[in-house]
Design brief:
Blueprint lengths: L1 H4 L9 E5 L3 H12 L3 E5 L3 H20 L5 H9 L1 E4 L10 E4 L5 H14 L5 E4 L6 H5 L8 E5 L9 E6 L5 H13 L3 E6 L6 H17 L5 H12 L5 H8 L1 H15 L8 H8 L22
Parallel strand pairs: 1-2, 1-4, 2-3, 4-5, 5-6, 7-8
Antiparallel strand pairs: 6-7
Length: 299
Amino acid sequence: MAAFREQATPQVVQRATVVGAGTMGSGIAQVLATAGIDVTLVDTSPPQLGRAEEAIGRSLDRLVRRKTVSAADASGTLERIRFTPVLDASAGADLLVEAVVEDLATKQRVLAAGAGLFPDSALLVSNTSSISITALAGGVGGPERVAGMHFFNPVAVMRLVEVVRGQRTSEATVRSVAALAERLGKVPVVVNDFPGFVANRILLPMLNEACFALMEGVASREAIDQVMKLGMSHPMGPLELADLIGLDVCLHILEVLHRDLGEDKYRPCPLLRRMVAAGLLGRKSGAGFYEYGEVDRPG
């Protein structure tokens, strides 16, 4: 690992591997490829890989219609992405982005596998929204090259990337991940490794309180969202936003905050728990606090 620690300038990424072809993974693959990086998108489910390819294609088509990118550039972006169910097919990449389910053991396995396959100089980053980067790096050889790179949905549009520094993350890694975010047209904000980091530690209690207000009959869903949009200049109301994020994701983050910070102000609303148990997860399931008809697969 000495060569990695001694780097004086940020690592320049040329080949990337994204593991997990869900909404976030496919979005991350798209922005990496848009920046001219060759990307291997890995998922053990071939049908999910097919959905990811379709979603990226739809997203690029929208950007072409809006004249944000040219048709030629969109075509080139898609050509730079390879879809495969086998991680070994990406051996030699100099960046691994882990975007799998929010489970510590699963994420550790992905990062450890990447550490064994890729060069010692490769960056190993997680898109986790709440799990400790220090804990994730604990099962990985070379924890100094592990960092958080928390993108926001929709990845192609949202400019923020939280760059999360774990206990053993090197400054070289932090600089390299921040430089990569800037190359992708994002704004990197470096934060330290605390539950929920910054964005979700502040955002999720607000969404949770909106759930409590609805459950207690303080106001209707529309009224709660309208108050926050008109009174606080939020582009979306908290219940609309929770539906976009996914109610299961919101619940998971709140459970992490409640467990790791040990304060009742992070206790998930019972209404949120019931909705997740009922499969009402928001846009991705077709219904949450609002009804969306057919299942939405954002791309």
